[in-house]
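Exercise 7b. Backbone tokens:
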């Protein structure tokens, strides 16, 4: 059975793509309702490679507008919005190769969460997943992006950076140079390895080491909430760097005017992070109004589709 939109309507395609997953929606332009969805693996060309990233997105777009799901959708596409992680130049060149997708617009994956955080008004959003970034909309409506440099150059507040900091301390615990805490036990449970040399060797040789480092972050957050001091210190340190980055953005764009500051992603919306962020804002007299972003980025994509 096909899913169809309003009779006589056209369709809009929206894509939110990062390193972990690529989510696509087909929206009825008349009603604004989502009539089809598709989820594919991550398509960041920095991770998957340009050729694989492009091929993955082509396949995902084909799956979204499969005639078995939406009858005659391809002939009625008015616009396609691609909000994707990775090189903007690569994605602009990719967009130019698409045919029968209406007007194709590309933008960074920060724009959907910024839309959710500020509803199109001036303000900023802090996002932390595997990586992190700060995005802002100025008083003149222009959008700005800071951070998002990846693990090699530091993504403060991200799952990778939090995991890296906590694991470094846990390794010192296993070496016997730092007092034992729940963090050392958590490291053993995470890898199944008992001592510092084995754990160090694992993270330097395993092909999925970066993902395993980022995957340690949820446990660090839980320990921080339970009062584990080394976990709290790791969290405070990574958030302090993210806030310093965000303060530079707010000072340049907004001065001392209070603006909404969205918090996007499970890390920043965790109770331990929210407590630390409020403390940092108070200590630095940072004029922002924190606002949790609880809706998924693809909802921000839908709103952008209908607004533009």
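Sequence design result:
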């Amino acid at each position: 059975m096909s899913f169809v939109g309003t009779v006589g309507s056209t369709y809009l395609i929206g894509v939110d793509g990062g390193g972990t997953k690529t989510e696509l929606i087909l929206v009825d332009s008349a009603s604004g309702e989502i009539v089809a969805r598709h989820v594919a693996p991550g398509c960041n060309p920095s991770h998957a490679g340009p050729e694989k990233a492009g091929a993955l997105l082509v396949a995902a777009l084909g799956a979204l507008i499969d005639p078995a799901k939406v009858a005659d959708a391809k002939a009625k596409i008015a616009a396609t919005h691609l909000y994707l992680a990775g090189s903007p130049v690569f994605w602009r060149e990719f967009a130019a190769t698409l045919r029968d997708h209406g007007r194709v617009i590309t933008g960074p994956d920060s724009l959907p969460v910024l839309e959710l955080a500020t509803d199109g008004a001036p303000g900023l959003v802090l996002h932390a997943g595997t990586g992190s970034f700060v995005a802002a909309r100025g008083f003149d409506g222009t959008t700005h992006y800071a951070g998002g440099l990846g693990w090699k150059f530091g993504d403060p507040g991200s799952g990778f950076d939090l995991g890296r900091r906590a694991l470094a301390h846990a390794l010192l615990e296993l070496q016997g140079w730092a007092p034992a805490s729940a963090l050392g036990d958590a490291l053993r449970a995470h890898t199944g390895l008992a001592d510092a040399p084995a754990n160090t060797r694992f993270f330097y040789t395993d092909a999925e080491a970066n993902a395993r480092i980022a995957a340690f972050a949820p446990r660090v957050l839980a320990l921080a909430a339970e009062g584990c001091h080394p976990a709290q210190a790791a969290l405070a340190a990574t958030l302090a760097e993210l806030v310093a980055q965000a303060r530079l953005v707010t000072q340049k764009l907004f001065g001392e005017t209070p603006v909404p500051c969205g918090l996007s992603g499970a890390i920043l919306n965790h109770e331990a992070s929210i407590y630390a962020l409020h403390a940092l804002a108070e200590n630095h007299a940072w004029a922002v109004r924190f606002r949790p972003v609880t809706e998924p980025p693809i909802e921000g994509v839908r709103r952008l589709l209908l607004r533009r």
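Instructor comment: The two ends are 31 Å apart (CA to CA). The chain has a mean pLDDT of 91.
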